[in-house]
Each structure stands twice: as structure tokens, then as C-alpha cells.
Please model this.
Amino acid sequence: MFYALSWFFVIALLALWSLASWALHAAAVWAVSNAGALTGVASGAGGIALPDWLAPWMPPEVAQWAGRLIADLAPFVDGLLQAAPALAGGLTVATWVIWSVGSVALVLLGAGLHLLIALLRRRSRSATGSGTSLAAG
Model:
């Protein structure tokens, strides 16, 4: 019965692992595929200003530096957004590799639990068997 419970536990974990992998893959592919539609959005990043409540706590030089940094990163972000749809195929391969590694680890966990149960049962039988042989002898 312990064997069945341990393998049921492993199969349940494998099902959860598969569901989580599928859901994250679907969300990531959707996000990457639709990222190209956001092209040009990052160009408006230069107009981002510090909140009014934060301005008294920050030196003006740091505020200017942060604004320049955001404005300089805008073309880089636009380039990444344009290239993102091409990454969807690689994302599928990466998801399959990660799912496979996790699945193999779960099956190995099941084999380890199976072996542990067998060893504990053998030890339990030998302990009870030696006690009866001493009492019989």
C-alpha cells in the first residue's frame, strides 16, 4: 500500500508540474508574441518624472541622471520589443527542456521512495524475524 501511495504522490506532483509548465509557457509565448505591438511605447519614457513626494528626498543631480538613463535606454527597449516575437520558438524548446528535467527528477524521486519503502520493509521483516528466531531458539 505504501508503494501505491508513494507513486500516487509522484504522479500527482508530475501532473502539477506539467500543468504549471504548460500555463507558464502559454503565458510567456503570449507575452512574447504580443511584445512587437508595443514598439514605440518606450520612446515616451523620456517624459517620466519623479513623483512630487520623492523630489525633496533626492538630489537634483540624481533625478537628472535617472531621467537621462531612462531616455537613453528607450531605443534599446524598443529593439528588444521588436525582436521578442522571434524568441517564441526558442521559448518552446526551453520549456520542453525544463519540463523534461523536472519530470525526470520527479520519476527519480518516485524510484527513491520505492527503494526506501523496500529497505524499510526489509529491515522491519528482519527485525521481527530475528526476534522470533531468538525466542524460538
